[in-house]
Amino acid sequence: MTKAPQSRDAFEARLRQIGAERYHDLHPFHDRLHGGQCTMEEVQAWVINRYYYQHSIPMKDAAFMSRVEDPDLRRAWRSRMEDHDGTADNEGGIRRWLRLAEAVGLDPDYVSTTEGVLPATKFAVDAYVRFVREKTLLEAVAASLTELFAPKIHANRIEGLLKNYAFADDSSLSYFRNRLKEAPKDVAFGLAWVLDHADTAEKQDVAARALIFKTDVLWSQLDALWGAYVEPRRIPPGAWQPGTGQLLRQAS
């Protein structure tokens, strides 16, 4: 017997429960960061490694759009690339992230090379880009729904960083403040699209697994960061070493 699909409301609740149980706001690194317990070296390592994710998002979106035949869907999705890459009127999330890098004492040119990124970070992020490139459109959109849970972590991050770190101000935290404004439109569109297109029980299962995959991508990045720079503090060959990639004025 074919399993009946969940109702729209029940399926949305199922997706939200995935975030409640698996989103990376539950990772101990975020408690450490937002609570002011990170050393500056740990903050710098986080900024360097998270940049690899930030700079890969527009490539993920470009890969998605290259497969979309519906111009309405391409048009709706295009703003995601503009939010990160920037436009004539919007500097974009990547530049804002590099401003954060400068604020924590890193050379933005060094960060943008991605040379010091942990191997596990690269594997996880590259797997996400490949997932979006190769899986169904439904899976690709469903994987993006971690945005449902992002506003809470951005708000907590702004509050925690402002309270606990001297580098935190409106300029250095502008990436997170802008995401509070940008993400809701992406969330509303992506969630509605998934709820509309996951119209069988099988498709709902596929979409839920895609969202779980994305939470795993985010979680694994923090696991790698924790193991390399917090404990047991084993930095793999080729990854960023504290004291390198700094602004010259910081090192002089």
Automatic annotation (TrEMBL):
HAMAP family from the UniProt entry: PQQ_syn_PqqC (MF_00654)
GO biological process: pyrroloquinoline quinone biosynthetic process
Gene designation: pqqC
Lineage top rank: taxon: Bacteria
Protein name (database record): Pyrroloquinoline-quinone synthase
Family: Belongs to the PqqC family.
Sorted UniProt keywords: Oxidoreductase, PQQ biosynthesis
Stored SUPFAM superfamilies: Heme oxygenase-like
E.C. designation(s): 1.3.3.11
Limits of the Thiaminase-2/PQQC domain: 13-223
Reaction it catalyzes: 6-(2-amino-2-carboxyethyl)-7,8-dioxo-1,2,3,4,7,8-hexahydroquinoline-2,4-dicarboxylate + 3 O2 = pyrroloquinoline quinone + 2 H2O2 + 2 H2O + H(+)
One Pfam family in the UniProt entry: TENA_THI-4
Entries under NCBIfam families matching the protein: PQQ_syn_pqqC
Top EC category: oxidoreductase
Pathway: Cofactor biosynthesis; pyrroloquinoline quinone biosynthesis
InterPro entries cross-referenced by the UniProt entry: Haem_Oase-like_multi-hlx, PqqC, PqqC-like, Thiaminase-2/PQQC
Species name: Sagittula stellata (strain ATCC 700073 / DSM 11524 / E-37)
